[in-house]
Amino acid sequence: MNLYEQQPYWLMKNGIVAQYPSLDKNLSVDVAIMGAGISAALTAWYLRNAGLNIAVFDRRHVAMGSTAASTAFLQYEIDTPLTELRDYVGETNAVKSYELCRKAIYDIEHLCKTLKPAFDFHLVPSLQYASFNTHTAKLKQEFELRKKYGFKINWLDKADIKKTFGFEAPAAVFSEDGGEVDAYLLTHALFADFCKEGHQVYNNSPVKHLEHTNKGVTLHMTNDLRVKARKLVIASGYESLQYVPKKIADIHSTYALVSEPLHDKYFWHRNSLIWETATPYMYFRVVSENRILIGGRDDPYHHPHMKPSVIVKKTTQLCNAFLKKLPDIPLKADFSWAGAFATTKDGLPYIGSIPERPNTYFALGFGGNGITFSVIAAEILRDMISGKKNNNAKLFEFNR
Ligand SMILES: Cc1cc2nc3c(=O)[nH]c(=O)nc-3n(C[C@H](O)[C@H](O)[C@H](O)COP(=O)(O)OP(=O)(O)OC[C@H]3O[C@@H](n4cnc5c(N)ncnc54)[C@H](O)[C@@H]3O)c2cc1C
Description:
Layout: E1 4-6, H1 9-14, E2 27-34, H2 38-47, E3 54-57, H3 66-69, E4 73-75, H4 82-89, H5 91-115, E5 122-123, E6 126-129, H6 136-148, E7 153-157, H7 158-165, E8 171-175, E9 178-180, H8 183-196, E10 200-202, E11 207-212, E12 217-221, E13 226-234, E14 250-259, E15 273-276, E16 282-287, E17 291-299, H9 308-325, E18 333-343, E19 350-352, E20 360-364, H10 370-385
Parallel strand pairs: 2-3, 2-13, 3-10, 6-15, 13-20
Antiparallel strand pairs: 1-18, 4-9, 5-9, 6-8, 7-8, 11-12, 12-13, 14-17, 14-18, 15-16, 16-17, 19-20
The structure holds flavin-adenine dinucleotide.
């Protein structure tokens, strides 16, 4: 499966930032990590000082899976509103999941400050507007529930939105806690720091087949080499689904574009992340070099090889939808791409282990908040692999 088609902006902007070898000998390690995207990088980094010998293998190149295509909104509001999530997992667990995603934004801020430079990380507020008048009542319920649990939010009516953001919408929730990052660069920086501790990262090293025993896992690689590991972490993005016997996610297609650079005068209140209540939704934000990123208009299927004409059509739709809101911005698409995108029944990730695969842990941050989920997965898996109890693990386990 192609994880994306055409030119994700960050890949074009940053190019190849580091080289890693391919595997050329058999290995024996304490922990093997399959995949080298943001989920693997965070898990590896959180484990790096646990006194374990760790190796990471990617079938492609570091961060060149979905991570390169990510539009990297960092939000605690997941695709399932809190008012709906409580019906799936109960109010306490729903609120806890939102709180963990909010904490993850600040964990990424801390990481970016620690690793330096800042990888285009910024704390920015987010605005979710009602796409139609009929969505206002539900958005108000969402606002009230989040307010009750102490989330820093304000309700904006039509006049407030026009005055503050300059566009028309019936109502909106303005949220103080949000962020954005260059996920591609952050992944490379995490691996660079991880390798300083003597651990290893390999490009072009696909795992063909897994053999589980009660002592550990053997990774059979496509070039007939073998890696023996006491523990395995599967962080292979959407391609991880083949290792889970039951269906846990649907794969959709999502689309994004980045505009040509624009004058500062065209940006909006505090460069907020902006998204809407419609399904599928459109979202937009300001990215580096004074460009605007627009994404969304998902399709509920994914073709392994998408036709370029589909991306052209979606780019036009996204530009038109944006210009309907902000017609005075002279927007011209510069880069556009499509990506695979997985959704789960409740919008939460799957983190942890399954009985069918002993000594193996999954970091599956599916959904619109994949990156904040990756942070949560890294923390939980670090504790599980180090034999410590993690009270949050139950929220995201496979048999929830
Ligand atoms: C267009 C788009 C927009 C998005 N926007 C957002 C957003 O705004 N905010 C957000 O939080 N999330 C967003 N996401 C989701 C987010 O990008 C993902 O959740 C995240 O990048 C997943 O990272 P990962 O490391 O789990 O997967 P990946 O980055 O895909 O990494 C998995 C790696 O595993 C490797 N692999 C697979 N199989 C094997 C094998 N057999 N052997 C060895 N290696 C293997 C792959 O080559 C790949 O590099 C978006 C995704 C897309 C596509």
